[in-house]
Amino acid sequence: SANYPGDLRHSVSGPYKSYASDFGKGKHVLQQRAAYKEAQKQLTPQGAKIVLDKGQYLSDKAQYIFSLLNEHKKIHLQAGTGSGKSYMAAVELAKHTDRKIIIACSLNAKVLKDAEQYNVAAVTGELMRQFDRQTILNTADAAQVVLCSYEQVPRLAARYGDEDPVFIIDESHSLSYSYRARSLNAMWAAVER
Questions:
Q1: Helix/strand/coil for 170
Q2: 3-24: per-residue pLDDT in tens?
Q3: What phi and psi, each to the nearest 5 degrees, are found at residue 178?
């Protein structure tokens, strides 16, 4: 499988498993190409594609993104650095719903920076240790948008579950190599309810 091209070399399963051992050896070239294309298709996120023109940001598409969220209940939004993901989630999405929006970030520093930048509530374990825990939670209760660390998602999901909040997991690419498996499992379990 080391000869398998691209991102697939570390994951040999599905329709191309039988071809991985022969890939690049001149055997079954057409079958290998077909299997590779099928694997690429399976690994590509399905669904609506949002295209941004030059100078355009995700915030310009917030209403459409929210309509997709309402329709599908879960969406995977992947966009490049500087496309306005955090701003769209923290500021623009709130203009299109009355639901509470909980944005989970991997780093406390990002939670604090974004909360200050977008003037929204923040909940982290560090904040609750530094300040009165109830004051932090009361501030979150009063806010429509709450930024939090991954570890706080189960607490907030239990607290606001009856309100049908929108959960946004920011920086989800960092989940694949995180040392915080127990916290992440608890986060996903809380969001899945």
A1: coil
A2: 444 444 444 444 445 445 555 5
A3: -85, 145
Q: What is the pLDDT of residues 139-170, one digit of tens each?
A: 999 999 999 998 898 999 999 989 888 888 88
Q: Give the span between the Cα atoms of 59 and 63, in whole angstroms.
A: 8
Question: Ramachandran region of residue 187, left (φ > 0), alpha (ψ -120 to 50) or beta?
Answer: alpha
Measure the CA–CA gap between 1 and 67, rounded to whole angstroms.
41
Please provide residue 127's backbone torsions phi and psi, each rounded to the nearest 5 degrees. Answer: -60, -40
Reduce the DSSP state of residue 112 to 3 states and report it.
helix
Residue with tokens 């706080």: 152
Torsion of Cα atoms, 161 then 166 then 170 then 173, to 10°: 90
Q: Which of 46, 93, 84 is closest to 65 using CA atoms? A: 93
User: Which candidate, 72, 152, 52, places its Cα nearest to that of 104?
Assistant: 152
Tokens representing 85 are 């993901």
> Residue 161: what are its φ and ψ, rounded to 5°?
-55, -35
Please say whether the beta carbons of 140 and 121 come within 8 A. Answer: yes
Q: Which residue do the tokens 């969001």 mark?
A: 191
